[in-house]
């Protein structure tokens, strides 16, 4: 094992990336690397892991939520891909270890108001990270993948800075998430058809959208997730068990609190005086021109980002090449079919570094 300080690397001025004090590196061969640490990105330290064969193409993964980090679970899902790619997991601003680095003892309304999240800031973070990865790993471009919230972040990044990316691969693509009305009507129909008294009572209690409190949106989404679980194949057992090093009280608390912090910022809360990030997202009107190939992976049983919405967006967008992959027995989250579709797409993307 050796410690490599990132201060020995010279970055382009456009990257605006100040290295952390040290970068932990565990090399198993000349090309195989396993690195993880905090690095300073646009003013705050953010958690990044880099694993795989550095001679291979790089994939930057954008987790969902926002706040639902993948770094504690990635090895369970993607370990075999490290022979073919360099896999980069990033705890975004406000999530996981990045949130925990400077987290308050208690998530208060004053902290939320003083520390808003915006898609512009987070996209700028992602672009800065992508620039760093190209330089540090000696690549012309990288592959960008995002799921759920990460799909909103990814579309913003790739349409702003297409020269950094070989392709955009989106899963459960967000298009226009500002309203919960259609979602409410859908689960109301499902609960009525199933004679689901508990869900029907909760839906009557929270009434129809729009909602002024993030807590109420969360109550609706819990019912949505219940019906998605009932109508789709689950992820393999063990995928979402924390890896050693993440299975501890601090990491668990930081993931949970970061998830809450990010969710409130995403959906907004009038009482807490937090604006909703999702109100600024309308890709069907604003993000239709891509200069890179586009691949969208969609579950037929997805309620949060339904196939009707993503297909309509896919049909309207323009790209040098585009593919739409519709998966049966699959909802909003990951299962084996989703990962198999990702891997097939990753392997088929044309890389020109060599």
Automatic annotation (TrEMBL):
Stretches assigned to the Serine aminopeptidase S33 domain: 55-333
Enzyme class label: hydrolase
Signal peptide range in chain numbering: 1-29
Alphabetized PANTHER family for the sequence: PROLINE IMINOPEPTIDASE
Gene3D superfamilies the record matches: alpha/beta hydrolase
Domain of life of the native organism: Bacteria
GO BP terms in the entry: proteolysis
Keywords for this protein: Cytoplasm, Hydrolase, Signal
Protein name: Proline iminopeptidase
UniProt EC number: 3.4.11.5
Catalytic activity: Release of N-terminal proline from a peptide
GO cellular component, one term: cytoplasm
Lineage, uppermost ranks: Bacteria, Pseudomonadati, Bacteroidota, Chitinophagia, Chitinophagales
Cytoplasm is among the record's keywords: yes
Single GO molecular function: aminopeptidase activity
Keyword Hydrolase: yes
